[in-house]
Amino acid sequence: MTADPVATELTTADGYVLGGYRFAAQAPLKGRVVVAGATAVPQEFYRRFAQFAAARGFDVLTFDYRGIGRSRHGTLKGFRMDLLDWGRQDLAAAVDAMADPQLPLFVVGHSQGGHAFGLTPNHARVAGFYVFGAGAGWHGYMPLGERLRVLAIWKVVLPVLTWWKGYCPWKLLGLGEDLPVDAYRQWRRWCQYPHYFFDDPAMRGIEQAYAAVRTPMVAANALDDLWALPAARDAFVGAYCNAPLTRRNLDPSRVGGKIGHMGYFRTLAEPYWEEVLTWFVAQPGPLAQA
Question: What is the pLDDT of residues 64-76, one digit of tens each?
Answer without folding.
Answer: 999 999 999 999 9
